[in-house]
Amino acid sequence: MSGAGVGGASEERQAMQAHVSIILPVHNAEPWLDECLRSVLQQDFEGTMELSVFNDASKDKSGAIIEKWRVKLEDSGVHVIIGGHDSPSPRGGNLGNKAGLLQHEAAVQHPSSIIGCRVRRDPPNSTERYTRWINQLTPEQLLTQVFTSNGPTVIMPTWFCSRAWFSHVGPFNEGGQVRAEGERKMGQTLCVPLLPGQRTTIWTHRVRFLEEQALPRWAAFTIWNAGKQGRRLYRSLTAGSQRKVVAFCDVDENKIRKGFYCHEDSQERPKPRIPILHFRAARPPFVICVKLDLTGGAFEDNLRSLHLQEGQDFLHFS
Fold first, then answer.
1. Is position 288 within any domain?
2. How many whole angstroms separate alpha carbon 203 and alpha carbon 246?
3. Is residue 56 domain-resident?
4. In sequence order, what DSSP letters do the residues of 228-284 get, joined into one string?
5. Which one of 39, 59, 84 terminates a domain?
6. What is the pLDDT of residue 188?
7. Ranges for the Glycosyltransferase 2-like domain (predicted)?
8. pLDDT for 222-251, tens place per residue?
9. Distances (CA, A) of 230 to 87, 276, 287
10. Which residue of 28, 175, 203, 295 is 20 to 30 Å from 251, comparing CA positions?
11. Separation CA 265–CA 281 (nearest Å)
12. Beta-strand (E) ranges in 162-251?
């Protein structure tokens, strides 16, 4: 938590040097504050610590108690930053109503679901396409678009569920088993995730998930994209799933003129030769390996022109 606007540049420099920051929002906490702040003083951590207190419109003696402990804490080497306001009502409570309580209400109505929400990025222009995808998903697409490289359709920082449901589902399964059932999302912006530094490829798990959850419903299907991503998906499928691929389709005339894709690494003889068709000549269902929101709407227009139903006639994989 930054000390900007509270103690000036010198406090900011000290805050940056702290190894541990203790963030303490306070509202009418007089009965508990002495014990709380005493516990901070009694910490045996050997690194540098700071305490950042936000007094959220307290009307009791919380402010005086905080000031009393500021002296003791700073004498012991704990840097203290104090902020707050004296508005008629606490602002933190209002934020809680918006972020936590709305999701709590949804969780009560859907006790066997993970509740998510829309998000706002910080900085605002980071991962624009990804943020747009998150916020524009329909309730139906929470299930149909779980196969894309974007990852879960209800993104992790927004997850909210009951303790009972968490205990039932259990912690993360490191073995790669993924479940798509029971996801819901609030239609409001309640979370501001920061831009991560890296992403981890989970291609193999996505392909297995596709084969377990979607492909068994289809006797045959077409891969939409005869380029790198489409061919990679084909090569990653099991032999049984590969035999279901009746064609690739594309808009690239050069690929279409070539006429087919030959799977050179196949152990079968003769080696499989998969036709490459124009998308209008291909037949659904499609596994689409074209990234959304990248072609100025051209791909989306082509897909809409076929009047297909997502989840039944096609699934997005890229």
1. yes
2. 22
3. yes
4. HHHHHHHHHS-HHHHTTEEEEEES-HHHHHH-EEE-TT--SSSPPEEEEEETTTS-S
5. 84
6. 64
7. 21-82
8. 999 999 999 999 999 999 999 999 999 999
9. 58, 11, 9
10. 203
11. 27
12. 183-191, 221-224, 245-250
Residue corresponding to tokens 């259990």: 170
pLDDT tens digit sequence for 297-311: 999 999 999 999 999
Domain containing 239 equals 213-316
Looking at 31, 64, 84, which one is the last position of a domain? 84
Q: What does the pLDDT look like over 7-32, one tens digit per residue?
A: 444 444 444 578 899 999 999 999 99
| Residue 284, φ and ψ in degrees, nearest 5 | -75, 170
294 falls within a domain? yes
Establish if 251 belongs to a structural domain: yes
DSSP 186: E
CA distances from 232 to 66, 113, 120, 267 (A): 61, 34, 33, 17
Query: Which amino acid is residue 135, in one-letter code?
Result: N
* Per-residue tokens: 289: 């390996």
**185-195 residue pLDDT tens:** 666 665 665 44
Measured CA distances, 298 to 128, 241, 251 (Å) = 18, 29, 10
